[in-house]
Structures are given as C-alpha cells and as structure tokens.
Amino acid sequence: MEANFAQRMQISTAWIDADKFPRKPTSFLRFSGRFKEHKRHQVFVSAQFRPERDENRHRWASFQVSCSYKNSQVSTLESESLQDLFDEEALILKNKSQEIEPYLKGRCIYLVGMMGSGKTTVGKILSRTIHYSFCDCDKLVEQDVGVPSVAEIFEIYGEDFFRDKETEALEKLSIEHRFVVSTGGGAVIRDENWMYMSKGISVWLDVPLEELAQRIAAVGTKSRPLLDNESGDAYTNAFRRLSTLFKKRHKAYENAKARVSLENIAAKLGYKDVSNITPAMIAIEALEQIGNIL
Ligand SMILES: Nc1ncnc2c1ncn2[C@@H]1O[C@H](COP(=O)(O)OP(=O)(O)OP(=O)(O)O)[C@@H](O)[C@H]1O
Ligand SMILES: O=C(O)C1=C[C@@H](O)[C@@H](O)[C@H](O)C1
C-alpha cells in the first residue's frame, strides 16, 4: 500500500472496541489497483470486529473492513472481509504445554474424577496439546473383555469382574509412556490402582455434583450402570446417586497429585457459574496444576 494513501486512512474507532483485541489479527488487508489510482482522495476505512463461537466453543473473530469514498456507498470502492481464527485458548494451551514439557519426561497423566467430570473430553484436549496418545481405560476393558460397553460388562459379569479388569488395564498402562489416561470414575477406590498410577501424574477433575448431575441428565444414564435404571426426574436421580458415591470416594480422589477444581477456575475468572467453563479452560488449569507439582 502506498505511504500517502496509508496516511489518509481513517479508522472509525467507534466501530471497534479495542478491548476486544486480545492480540492482533494475523491476516493483512489487500487493496485493489483501483485504490492506488485514487490515492489523492480521502478514503475512510471502517472495521467491524465480531467475536463469535462455533459449535465446538472455539472462538472466532470475523473482522470486516470496508472502505468508503466521500459519501459514496461502500460498494463503489472496495471492501475486504476476512475471517481470522484466533483461538486464544489454543495459544495458552500451547505455551503452557511448552513450559511443562521438559519436566514431564514422558510420564503418563491419569485423569481421575466422578462420572461426567470431563476426563474424556478434557483428556483428549490435553493429549493433543502435549502430543501424547489418549487412552480411555473403560474402552481398554471393553476391548479386553470383548463386550462393547461397560454397562453390558456389569450386566453379564457383575461389578467385581469389571473392577478386576480395570486393575489389569491400569497395570498394563503403568509400563507405558506418553499417554493421557481417562480412568473409570471408580478406579480410585482400590489402593492397587493407585500403585499403578503412581508412576505417572494423577489429576483429579473436581466438578460440583450439581454440574455433574446436569451433564449426566442431559446425555442420559444408559452408559453409566451405577446411575441407571431409575424412574423419575433424571437430574434429581443422578444428583442423589452421585452424592452417595462421592461421600464414599472423595477421600480417594484427594490422593491425586494435582487437583483441578472448577469452583477455583470460576473464582479466578470471575464466573458465577461453573457451567460456562469450557473444556479448554479446564485443560489450561490442568497444565497449570501439573506445572506446579513438577
Ligand atoms: N466443561 C464442560 N462443559 C460442559 N459439558 C461438558 C464439559 N466437559 C464435559 N462435558 C460433557 O459432560 C459429559 C461427560 O463428559 P466426559 O465423557 O468427558 O466425562 P467422563 O469423566 O469421561 O465421564 P465417565 O467417567 O462417566 O465416562 C459429556 O456429555 C461432555 O460433553
Ligand atoms: O464411577 C464409576 O464407578 C464408574 C465410572 C465409569 O467410568 C465406568 O468405569 C463404570 O461405569 C463405573
């Protein structure tokens, strides 16, 4: 772009909320040859910045720049529109993972927590970020037993059989490296399982029971045999059963080397409600907490 043309550019700041620019968009603007021919005219450039979220809760910014000449319609000159993905959370994740990478030394990360606490969802984000493989312990047991779901394993063989298989799966994983493991919600109840997990870094995803019950009621209890088979209101039932389980287990979850508390994240971010905390934000806090204990 020619210098004198650039000097005449005016940005209509009324359209731009400067606070909404956490970092500069990486794209650049192109102007057509027609502009260059009219370089002595005063051209007004206005920009509209629209933060958006897609269905995966990724943040996007659509940045639309329009030019106008005197009072003529925008379209009589040129307008450029561009869309720039600036996923702030992805950038923080990348930076945090680079900070802790040298200290992880390939040790596995075991996510522990109640059913529905996000071990799978957050675990997948973490594994991608730190370039580890992801493993769902429940799935490992299903493959080993040759039955397609944990619910069916409970139905056919009973819970004790499942627990033995879960311990075997954790034993196998204990000789592995560079895995993020989503453990079963009840894996914490056996001391033997902690012995296997102690070779890695255990992280407790501590989510309030109300939030867990809401998530579980939203997706149903079919895949969660310890919460299934009850008539009545899904939220109330899930909340009651989760409360009973949590009373028995909370001490065991506290054995984890690191704790990621959604209530603490909400307090840090000034959120009233933990339901607005995205899985990526939780993964960021997990990396932070892991960093604190390395
Ligand atoms: N931060 C979040 N905000 C809203 N919903 C979430 C969040 N994290 C996970 N979920 C949803 O909650 C449900 C449970 O998540 P997920 O399967 O990751 O939990 P889990 O701990 O692996 O559960 P389980 O131990 O029962 O297999 C899913 O429907 C998921 O989409
Ligand atoms: O909390 C639990 O005890 C369970 C959680 C699931 O991940 C499965 O491991 C199984 O449904 C039992």
From TrEMBL:
Q: Which cofactor does it need?
A: Mg(2+)
CDD domains given for it? SK
What does the record give as the reaction this protein catalyses? shikimate + ATP = 3-phosphoshikimate + ADP + H(+)
Entry keyword set: Amino-acid biosynthesis, Aromatic amino acid biosynthesis, ATP-binding, Chloroplast, Kinase, Magnesium, Metal-binding, Nucleotide-binding, Plastid, Transferase, Transit peptide
Cross-referenced InterPro entries: P-loop_NTPase, Shikimate/glucono_kinase, Shikimate_kinase/TSH1, Shikimate_kinase_CS
Record pathway: Metabolic intermediate biosynthesis; chorismate biosynthesis; chorismate from D-erythrose 4-phosphate and phosphoenolpyruvate: step 5/7
Assigned EC number? 2.7.1.71
SUPFAM superfamilies in the cross-refs? P-loop containing nucleoside triphosphate hydrolases (SSF52540)
Give the UniProt subcellular location, in the record's own words. Answer: Plastid, Chloroplast
One biological process term from GO is:
amino acid biosynthetic process
**Alphabetized Pfam families for the sequence:** SKI
The domain of life for this entry's organism is: Eukaryota
Q: What does this protein do?
A: Catalyzes the specific phosphorylation of the 3-hydroxyl group of shikimic acid using ATP as a cosubstrate.
Q: Which HAMAP family match?
A: Shikimate_kinase
Name the family: Belongs to the shikimate kinase family.
Name of the protein this chain belongs to: shikimate kinase
